Amino acid sequence: xxxxxxxxxxxxxxxxxxxxxxxxxxxxxxxxxxxxxxxxxxxxxxxxxxxxxxxxxxxxxxxxxxxxxxxxxxxxxxxxxxxxxxxxxxxxxxxxxxxxxxxxxxxxxxxxxxx
Amino acid sequence: xxxxxxxxxxxxxxxxxxxxxxxxxxxxxxxxxxxxxxxxxxxxxxxxxxxxxxxxxxxxxxxxxxxxxxxxxxxxxxxxxxxxxxxxxxxxxxxxxxxxxxxxxxxxxxxx
Lengths: 115, 112
Known about the structure:
The structure holds 2 protein chains of 2 kinds.
Chain A (H helix, E strand, L loop, with lengths): L4 E3 L2 E4 L5 E6 L6 E8 L3 E9 L2 E5 L6 E5 L5 E5 L8 E8 L10 E2 L3 E5 L1
Parallel strand pairs in A: 2-11
Antiparallel strand pairs in A: 1-3, 3-8, 4-5, 4-9, 5-6, 7-8, 9-10, 9-11
Chain B lengths: L8 E5 L4 E6 L7 E8 L6 E6 L4 E2 L4 E4 L5 E6 L8 E9 L13 E6 L1
């Protein structure tokens, strides 16, 4: 158990719909990362938040957005869903302070199926 | 972050040591070597990381060559539960964190 929690574990929805994935980081971790894993793309970085502020963006679609709340949990919002958005979505967290290498710990993931 | 090259797949007999190689010939002086693994569709699991010295923890050992252009992850006594995809990632030290870039990894099959 990494200490990172994600809900829900599974999500089945229809095209055009909107869903919200939730992530709670490990206690003390300030940074949250979102990754997408689809069969044809592998694990891809989407976005990072550090202490409530967006820190880095990767291959995140405009239909997707995220935020990190004052209690440091994060939500990933996916809208106008398409079949190709079906994937595993992982959240990771890290301490991300200055002074040394930064290790990310991953949650169990949310499996999204768009029908 | 430097690019890494790993074999696509490897087999290992249960109880034997699994040695997983990784080439990172363009690594720079301040970049670390990280290893993660992913069992089936679970979240990637951190294994170990190092800069230039060999490292060991309860899960594995990491051997980095003197020129730092390659490394080997060693699972000393592989079990069936070590069957997974193993990712070697090279990344620098960032203030306030930084993304991980995953390649295709090595699919390790531990066989009875």
